[in-house]
Task: structure prediction
Amino acid sequence: MPDRESSPKLPPPAERMIRGVASKQKSVERGHDKWSWSSVTVVGVVGWSVTLSTLLGLALGIWIDRHWPSRFSWTLALLAVGLVFGCVTAWLRLKGDAS
Result:
């Protein structure tokens, strides 16, 4: 392994990144990894928020199409609305957890 004096000088951002990776590696080796079940929980909650809003839009659209038939498909429209609503909700939830 080359010594530090013979290796080229790295720019400050690269030095910080290397120190950060080394620090993370040490914490993982000690068992202090922050990525644990809380990360899995966030992914699950985000997935369910998208899935449930999409399915609720689909169910409401099917119900409207059966009770008030028209040439406009409420099923497709509300499916899309539910999907967009779920994605926006997931984005806001992730944005709130990241800060």
Observations:
- The radius of gyration is 24 Å.
- The chain is about 75% helix and 0% strand.
